[in-house]
Amino acid sequence: MLKLAKITTYVSLCLLYGCAPPSSIKTHNTLTDKTLVSHATSLESKKLYSANWPSQSWWLSLGDIQLNNLIEQALQHSPNIQLANANLEKASALVMAADSKFDPVVSANASATRSRLSRSEDYTYQGSQYGTLYGLGLNMSYSFDLWGGNKAAWVASVSNQKAAEIDHQAAKINLSSAIIRTYIQLANAYALEDLAKDDFERTQRIILITEKLLQSGLTSNDRLYTAQSNEASSKQVLKQRALSIQLLKNALATLIGDGPDLANNIQRPSAHLSAKLNLPAELPANLMAHRPDIVAAKWRIEAASKNIDVAKTRFYPNVNLSASAGFKSVLGDSMFGEPSRSWSVGPAISLPLFTQDLKANLIDQSADYDSAVAHYNQTISKAFGDVTDRILTIKSVNKQIADAQRSAKLAAQSYHITEKRYQSGMGSQLEVLLIENQLLQAESALTLLKNQLQEQQAALIEALGGGFGDDQTVSTSKH
């Protein structure tokens, strides 16, 4: 008896060893998050850190009710959010499917079969026999999760569900950020329209001055034509600015997922972002918990790792248990009588003999893991690049604004003096036109820089996670 037990144990070990997944199939990529954090010391400048991480719905602090309503409407009706909702529903369904693997499969059946037997089917070899068979019963099957494959599949589905939840939040952040950036551009378009109106008024004043000079015989008709031509050009620019405003309103309506009627109801923005550069403390280390794309990528690595475990368990034997119980009777028998009772129980073991497809599946899952790791590393690198770009740009734009303000102030003073001189008949129209163009360029450059600063501030908030925080965890220890 002891010898038989040893033989059985030896044979079992040989079978398990023969069914073990090949050790040559491995993953290759590794996480580089710690390395990237250690190489991001340039973001540790303590003098910059005076703010908390962005909060959810951070745009409420801008005090623009119209912007709040637009974002709220977009989060309810945007096709991007609808797509994220559908992906989350699908991920939740996959969790339910994985969870069902732990339960036995039970089905009920009822049948009534009327048949006529031929001679070859009749054990009396007479044929022309009629019979009726009734059946009523339950069937059950259960697969034992001996190697943890079902649990690994469940953990993978939960990880993917968590990633889908974060993608859903990321979709909201991306949508709100896109609306805010477009809203800032709309405010800038209105500011540029104001400059175009001011320039148009200046050209009209020059026409009036030229007409008076012409009446006094101090200038000629060609100067008047030049002034009128300049006025027409300014009027054209004014119409271009009005078109830009309308196009940006249409862009907002498109982002929100509404029709063009919404664009007609959008008023001039009043939101204004702070120009200060405030960054949260311990930025490099904590950025990975505040960027939804990084957190989602990490959950997908977890899912890919568990899918490898699932692929490995398919190399091992699988044990199933099937059972059925019920009643089977022929015409005339008592349906629930002793002779009609029927049941069966049957354990079964299955062992893969040809594993080429299993090897291919393991290679495929390992490649998916390497892809998930590579995507995670790329996402972290991009995140640090985004934040660094925004910081450098904001610093530079702040310095450029100081120069642009001085340039616009001096150009305005110069234009005022030149216009007065021309009005008195002492200056030339060419000087007025040149300094007018210089003033318009200086004012436009200053307005564009202020807009760029606003956009970069919004982009920095988005780069810092846009209010996302990985403070919710999904349990993976249900089974």
Topology of this structure?
Blueprint: H1 2-19, H2 33-38, H3 65-77, H4 79-100, E1 105-117, E2 129-143, H5 149-215, H6 221-256, H7 260-265, H8 283-290, H9 292-313, E3 318-330, E4 341-350, H10 356-423, H11 429-463
Antiparallel strand pairs: 1-2, 2-3, 3-4
Helix pairs in contact: 3-5, 4-5, 5-6, 5-9, 5-11, 9-10, 10-11
Structural write-up:
- The protein is of the alpha+beta class.
- It is 63% helix and 11% strand.
- It has 11 helices and 4 strands; from the N terminus they run ααααββαααααββαα.
- It has a 4-stranded antiparallel sheet, with no helix packed on it.
- α4 runs antiparallel to α5.
- The longest helix is centred in the C-terminal third of the chain and has 68 residues, at 356-423.
- It starts with a helix and ends in a 16-residue tail after the last helix.
Question: What would a concise description of this structure say?
Answer:
The protein has 479 residues and is α+β, with helices and mostly antiparallel strands. Helices cover 63% and strands 11% of the residues.
**Strand-and-helix sequence, N→C?**
HHHHEEHHHHHEEHH
Low-confidence parts lasting 5 or more residues at pLDDT below 50?
472-477
Number of helices: 11
Largest sheet: 4 strands, antiparallel
How would you classify the helix and strand content by structural class?
Answer: alpha+beta
- First CA to last CA: what distance? 38 Å
Helix percentage range: 55-70%
Average residue pLDDT: 85
Q: What is Rg?
A: 38 Å
Spatial arrangement of strands, main beta sheet: 1-2-3-4
Please report the total strand number as a whole number: 4
Task: Give the overall form.
Answer: elongated
Strand percent estimate: 5-15%
